[in-house]
Write a structure and sequence with these properties.
By secondary structure, this protein is an alpha/beta fold. It is built from eight helices and six strands. It has a domain of about 90 residues: Dna Topoisomerase Vi A Subunit, Chain: A, domain 2 (3-Layer(aba) Sandwich). About 45% of the residues lie in helices and about 15% in strands. The mean pLDDT is about 90.
Length: about 200
């Protein structure tokens, strides 16, 4: 079916979002058209405001409307520990646990030669500058257990070794409620490696 041009354009724009296929884009477009004009104005204003005001923190490269970000300026954070993550969404996931109280460093990606992403495209140089700070005693690598995450972790471990800083990585293992028979071998192996005493 041929859509009227403005509707086709709207659907096309929604399809540019990650994980949105043609049917989802169509549903979103029709939903938006049914919304009251005031709500559509708020929605579009929120998108424009976020795009205009949210930048990368000059210290940790987290997304924020503040410079430096709220985490870097907080006096309640442990400045001796830096948790390295690939993306801001990973930082948010860790923050939701309310367990970690240190600082962060967002690499803005992972090493992926197949995608043409090498160490130079990531915020690794800035991490090394932060590691020279004498108050940093530990760097936690909280990167995904993927091929790219492993490659990045190994690379960071190698270049951070000379700094005489404790380098740790988060444990990987079984999800709560998971059945052993359905878990892949790598996850099960990691769970055994990361075991600890009762």
């Amino acid at each position: 079916m041929q859509y009227t041009k403005p509707l086709a354009t709207l659907i096309e724009q929604f399809q540019k979002l990650p994980g949105i296929g043609p049917k989802s884009a169509q549903r979103m477009a029709f939903h938006l058209l049914k919304m009251p004009p005031a709500d559509v104005q708020k929605f579009s204003a929120a998108i424009l405001e976020a795009k205009e005001k949210i930048k990368y923190c000059s210290v940790c490269f987290n997304m924020s409307s503040n410079e430096p970000c709220e985490i870097c300026t907080s006096d309640k954070r442990d400045r001796s520990v830096i948790c390295v993550v690939a993306e801001t969404k990973d930082l948010i996931a860790i923050e939701k646990t309310n367990e970690y109280k240190g600082l962060y460093h967002v690499l803005q990606g992972l090493i992926s030669p197949l995608d043409g992403i090498g160490p130079e495209e990531l915020r690794i140089r800035e991490l090394l500058e932060r590691a020279t700070n004498e108050t940093v005693t530990e760097i936690i690598l909280a990167l995904n257990p993927s091929v790219e995450g492993e490659a990045t972790s190994l690379y960071l471990n190698k270049i951070l070794k000379p700094f005489n800083i404790k380098i740790t990585r988060i444990a990987f293992g079984l999800p709560v409620g998971g059945d052993l028979e359905y878990v892949d071998e790598l996850t099960l192996a990691r769970a055994l490696e990361g075991r600890r005493e009762f």
